[in-house]
Amino acid sequence: MELPVRWQFFSPLVFFLFLAQLWVIHAEEDAVSSIQKASNDSLLWGPYRPNLYFGVRPRIPRSLMSGLLWTRVEDYQSIQSNFRYTCEQHELDGYGWDEYDVRTGGRQTIHDPANGIDITTEFVKIPGGSHGGNWGVRIRGTPREDASPNLRTTVVWAASLEVGRLEVAEVEEGTTGIVGDVVLKGHTEELGDFEMAITEGKGDHPVTGHPSYDDKPLDRTLVKSVYMQAEALWQTKAILFAHLKSEIDALLAKWTQENPPPPAQLYTIDHAPGQGNVHMIQKVFEGPFEFDVLFSSASAPKQITPADITQQIRSITTGFSGRFKEILAPKAPFLKERYEEFSKSLFSNLIGGIGYFYGDSRVDRSYDSAYEEDNEGFWEDAAEARARNQAEMEGPSELFTSIPSRPFFPRGFLWDEGFHLLPVIDWDVDLSLDIVKSWFNLMDEDGWIGREQILGAEARSKVPAEFQVQYPHYANPPTLFMVLTAFLDKLDSLHKSDNPSNTILKSDTSYSSRLINKDAALDYLRNLYPLLKRHYFWFRKTQAGDITSYDREAYSTKEAYRWRGRTPQHILTSGIDDYPRPNPPHPGELHVDLISWMGMMTRALGRIGSALGETDDVKQFARYEDAILHNIEDLHWDDKAKVYCDATIDDYEENVHVCHKGYISIFPFLVGLLPPDSPRLKAILDVLSDPEELWSEYGLRSLSKSDEFYHTAEDYWRGPIWINMNYLAVVQLLKLSQSPGPHQKRATQLYTDLRQNLVKTVYESWKETGFAWEQYNPETGKGQRTQHFTGWTSLVVKIMAMPNLEGSGSGARDEL
Ligand SMILES: *[C@@H]1O[C@H](CO)[C@@H](O)[C@H](O)[C@H]1NC(C)=O
């Protein structure tokens, strides 16, 4: 047999060169993979329990969880209600991260007037070793100005471990408490051997003078170790209360109601350290206090010390500020320091809210025929089918994600996440890509992702039963594709031009390894690509709208879309729940927001396909996109209302538009589907800028002031200002202002005004209340609804960092 021609040239020299080249490739791959391992390791630990005021866990299921509880102990009445653990609305006077970086750590401040104390948590991570390194937190309590100088505070650090071993090291029998540091030793398969030390710390302890003091002096640390069922482990507060109660009962029996121990003494656990899967470590202080929790991995080069926390927190502060200035610094007119502080706080809370969730979830896969929503009156059948309660437990699954709000929505929301990651990807590309991947990993075989991820019993405890079930025919806006588009923009800019900001990026391997290394970037996209396509085709199939049954005229007979899961008052799946839609609902409805999202998604997929060289796919996506763009015009533009409208079928079986001016009417513009010379732009800018319609001096209203449903019923998306949609508008106005054309000048002015209005609105409310809010009132500008809404409201960080276009003419406004 003769060798093919090319093999005849195969000489030893060629072979050697070939080997050498392989070696170089491998060496490069090793370097990349070790950068990626380090990057991944630096994400292992975090305050990934954002539902707690402070709780730490690794991104590992069933692993070491810990968290902080505290209360003042000065009277008997208030203790139960003042015991802090999970974030709740309206109990504190502001709390959150002043600065935080997921890789290194940061500082959180908590203002607790009812307990008379301010608490700071300074969390640091120190890399090293093969198990994700060490971490530590310094917990400091400072009595507030109006508190008694002898304020007594009980503090509990609780640690639990579902699978593995955890015990208090070297306990002496028969002691009344531990003097010095408390050390827990443990082992799990993923973490190896480790130690968690709770230091003695600094601060005075109450001397109660009551005879019970001798049995349990409060100048030492009390430790209680118990075994609980795995399913109960998350209920730390209930476990603590149960143990406190039995101790209180015993103390009251002993000392009687006539001479009870004072609260600081009475509310103490009994000291019983040892083995257990839950360990409660309690300290009682008088006045200010401070102590550290130090986690050391046995594989790290050395143990973490209090001095490491001091040093690391200092370098985090400098590093964070420096990097923030480079990447997200507010631009004119927001140059005063207070805007920088505001921006840092919002951004820190966005990434400080990132959590790791693990657990089962409730899904109704009955595929009840009522869920097809294809007959008139379908919503009643669907409601009955839901009431039959056909949900079953699925999973467990894991999710790494940020969240809309720590007290109210401490879990993953699909469409929120795409907005959350837009500021995050500017700061930390690898982190954002990890989160995107985590979401797409939740996809089922059909391509569905549940829009609200309520994983595990702890997450479910915050959600009423009727809202826990997810349905695999329900969609949610595919906003994660905006994040992938942002990633592609960065990739193009980095690998095509000599943009000076690239030097910063390039030195930032710990945040951007998958951006800097183009092969790693393409690898990531290639791995994700099949999931993205599956998701896309799931949308096309399950959310299709009907063109042909109703004599509708359109460029394409296929591209029309309808949200499933609607009721007369709501389309929760659309994200803009109570925005007025055709009523009563009809199976022939078509939704302009959904076809616009599909346009955005199609375009994003086309770009990804093109980066991956998938030419056939790219052609197919281009055809879809073209058809979608035409059909948005043919099916949704209303010549009389001069906006885009939903469509439905009237009593005479005719296609009609249903127009309620608001975010819906400008949706194709908001998601970037209108070119700068679009004949629709004039009308879109008219409705957007009209104070009788969308425009208010605080931002764009969700529903026009002139609409009959403005501020009616729940008034959720019927007027109030939402920052996510406003952000999209600002981005599009900026694009228009940079594109020569008939609307350039007008867009520049609108961009400038809207940008300033939004920043002022969110800033003023933050200054006044200490919180970012879910939405803002278009009449007063005040924040309303959910407090501590540091999810997409944080997009104001990006809005501040956008260019200032004011002052190219005369009359530039002063610095604000
Ligand atoms: C990153 O770390 C997590 C947690 O240790 C681990 O489960 C995952 O496999 C790691 N990923 C990579 C790509 O190494």
Automatic annotation (TrEMBL):
Pfam families: Glyco_hydro_63, Glyco_hydro_63N. Its EC number is 3.2.1.106. InterPro entries: 6-hairpin_glycosidase_sf (IPR008928), 6hp_glycosidase-like_sf (IPR012341), Glyco_hydro_63_C (IPR031335), Glyco_hydro_63N (IPR031631), Glyco_hydro_63N_sf (IPR038518), Glycoside_hydrolase_63 (IPR004888). Pathway: Glycan metabolism; N-glycan degradation. Its main location: endoplasmic reticulum. GO terms for biological process: oligosaccharide metabolic process; protein N-linked glycosylation. It is an enzyme of class 3 (hydrolase). Keywords: Endoplasmic reticulum, Glycoprotein, Glycosidase, Hydrolase, Membrane, Signal, Signal-anchor, Transmembrane, Transmembrane helix. One of its GO terms (cellular component) is endoplasmic reticulum membrane. Residues 305-802 form the Glycosyl hydrolase family 63 C-terminal domain. It is found in: Endoplasmic reticulum membrane. It is a single-pass type II membrane protein. One of its GO terms (molecular function) is Glc3Man9GlcNAc2 oligosaccharide glucosidase activity. It catalyses: N(4)-(alpha-D-Glc-(1->2)-alpha-D-Glc-(1->3)-alpha-D-Glc-(1->3)-alpha-D-Man-(1->2)-alpha-D-Man-(1->2)-alpha-D-Man-(1->3)-[alpha-D-Man-(1->2)-alpha-D-Man-(1->3)-[alpha-D-Man-(1->2)-alpha-D-Man-(1->6)]-alpha-D-Man-(1->6)]-beta-D-Man-(1->4)-beta-D-GlcNAc-(1->4)-beta-D-GlcNAc)-L-asparaginyl-[protein] + H2O = N(4)-(alpha-D-Glc-(1->3)-alpha-D-Glc-(1->3)-alpha-D-Man-(1->2)-alpha-D-Man-(1->2)-alpha-D-Man-(1->3)-[alpha-D-Man-(1->2)-alpha-D-Man-(1->3)-[alpha-D-Man-(1->2)-alpha-D-Man-(1->6)]-alpha-D-Man-(1->6)]-beta-D-Man-(1->4)-beta-D-GlcNAc-(1->4)-beta-D-GlcNAc)-L-asparaginyl-[protein] + beta-D-glucose. Residues 42-267 form the Glycosyl hydrolase family 63 N-terminal domain. Cleaves the distal alpha 1,2-linked glucose residue from the Glc(3)Man(9)GlcNAc(2) oligosaccharide precursor. Belongs to the glycosyl hydrolase 63 family. This is Mannosyl-oligosaccharide glucosidase. It comes from Delitschia confertaspora ATCC 74209. The lineage of its organism: Eukaryota, Fungi, Dikarya, Ascomycota, Pezizomycotina.
